[in-house]
Structure formats: structure tokens, C-alpha cells
Amino acid sequence: MEELLSVVAANLSMAGEDGETFRREAASALLAYSEDAQQLEFLLASKPGLAVVAALARTRAGLRDGLGALVNLMAFANASGEPAMDALVRALASPKSVDAACVAAASDAFEAATRRSALMFLQNLTTRPCGAEAVARREEAVAALTKRFARRGAAAAAAEWADGFAAILQNLSAQPTFRSLLLRRSTKILGALLPQLLDGYLDAFGAASPGKRRGVAAALRHCCHDKDEHFYLLSDLHAPTFALFALADASDAARLANDDHEALALPGGANWRDAAPPAVLREAAETLGDSKKREPDARVTLSLLEALLCLASTRRGRERLRALRAYAVVKDCDFAFAPGRDDRDDADAGGDTEVLVTTDDAPEPDEATLSEDEILRKHIARVCSDLANMLLRAEVGADDQPDEPERAEDYGEMD
Predict the structure, then answer these.
(1) pTM of the model
(2) Average of pLDDT values for 154-173?
């Protein structure tokens, strides 16, 4: 590999068709070398060699295989430990490399294999906080990619790259720099992402995959940690309405009283209302009607419930959730993911005697003995219980206490 890197460094800027051919073949050779652990170990220890590969991966001809080689190198570094991975990510997350990967991932001008390599490169970078922060700082490039992800329609839903970017979106939204971009009023990015939570059952728009919904739900959860943005999330973006709509099932809505139908953003009521909701919510209710089903993915459900829990950390948030009859949705959601127990014959929330079934004191099983699905259901039950308690608790004083939002990591992060 050392000899190849020397040749690449000397001829990287070769012009014309011969230059394109050279860079394409050089990248292909480096990709083949990256399958060998000994060669990867050499490259990881060579800063000049790493710079050559990164430069080659920024050229159009070398983009696909060059990024593929760097993805293999990051996997090798990650297996070597966090210090090695962090050092590599810092070396690779240059503005030019990030911009090139974002452009390739977002543009139809590149073949599918090149776009996959670009997404895998960005996904590996953003698994480390230093890499996610570096990517988030490239606002123009990452904003264009995020807006493309937010497109709706059958073509957007079928795009293979969407699930790959959903994981990147989840990683990026953990960084304050990217959250500020999502929540910036001028970009309207988060508002464009939220309808993806509804598309799981809207065939007319092309159903969003579970991967896309996981990415959007995780981004919303992270944004809800910012208490200073709660007014915007509650009043302008109608975030709890989107979340509750996704979590609710028409068969559950049918049992609610008429006044609950009017206050709760659900199909099934004659006067379905939420003060001036986005048109997409009204359209979703009209399209789905009594066929509306609850979000079936446990990871999406957990992120949405955690987002609501964060919003419930302020008085304004709790009041809004109560007005939307969120307690009824939480109870039914808890039942759906914890089958075999049902307290839905109780009256809906309205007094201190209302107790969620998940508040029982049965000993919890050791998570080591549970499957991944059982662990997710356990976390859902715990969040439902905490959220129900916050909605039922009596408010004390005129001013809200500066209580912090519950952290999602208390209940388990999405992969």
C-alpha cells in the first residue's frame, strides 16, 4: 500500500480522461487493500497516507471506492477502541470531505453505489460526537441533505438512501449545533420532518419506512430536550399533536367521550380539532379515518413517548398535553405494548385516583434475561408510567419550577 499511496500522491491531479481513469483505478485498488487488516493498520498509523486517501475520495472518479476504503478503515479503528476511532474521525471530518459526501448522498447525479458509500461514510463519522459536531457545522451541505430526506411521496419513500440518512439524522440531532439548525424558524426543517411520522399509513404519499420514522422520532426527542424551544414546539410546530396522532389508534379513539374527540388530535370524532393544526394533520385524519392504526414500531414509539415526557417537564407542556387528552393515548399505548393487562375500563384521567396499570410494584426481571423487544417494551412501560404521573400530578404555585426534562438515555437509546 505504501508504494500505491506514493503513486497516487504524485498523480492525483492528473488532468483529462487519463486522470479520471487513474483516480478510478487507484480508488478501486485502495478499496481492495482495505480488506486486509495489516494494510489497514499501516494506513491508520500513516497521517500522510490517510491524507492521500481522503483527497482521492473527494474526487468524482475516486469517490465511491475511496469512501468505501475509509468506511472499512473506520470499522477497523472502531474495533481498536474509542481513542483510535476518535483520532481517525477528527482526521477525516474535514469540511471538504464532509461537503463532498453530503453532495454525493443528496444528488441523483451520482450512481446508487456512490451514494451508499457517502451515506456509510457520514454514518460512521457521526457515531462519534466529534464527528457529528464536525458534520453539523457544515450547515449548507447537511441542510440540503436533510431537506431532501424530508420530501414526501412514493419516490422519496422508496429511496434506498433514506434509511441510511435516518441513522445519520438521529446521530446529528444529539448535537446542539444541528438541533439549532432543525429548530431555526427560517429553515423550517423540523416542521418538514414531522409529517414523516404520519406517512407510515398514508399510501397516497408513499409510506415512510420504519427507519425514516425512527430517525424523525429520535430527532424530535432530542429537540424536546431544549426547554427554551418548548413554546415553538408546542404552539408553532404542534409537536405533541403529531406524536399523539402517531401513537393513537382509531379503535381507542372510538371509546372516548365526544368532548375528548374534539380536544384530541385523532380521527373518529365528528369535530376533530386542534386549534389551527397543520393541513397535513387534517388531511391524514380525513384519509385514514377509522382505519388509523397505532405506530407499530417499538423504537419509534419509545422516542415519541420520551419526547412527550420532555415536553411534560414544563407547566406549559403539561397543560397542553392535558388539553389534548394525552393521558388516554398513553394508557392505550401502554396496553398495546404490554398485552395481558388492561385498565381501560377506568374513567379517563380526571383525578388523583387514576392510576396507570404499569405502576404496579411487581419485581422487574433482569434485562440480561430479556430479548431486545422485551427490553424495549419494558422501557415503554416505564416512560408511560412516568408520563402519566406527570400529567396527573397537581400543579403547585403560579410559576413553573425549573425542572429539567427527563433524559431519554434513562430509558435506552435507539441504535
Answers:
(1) 0.83
(2) 78
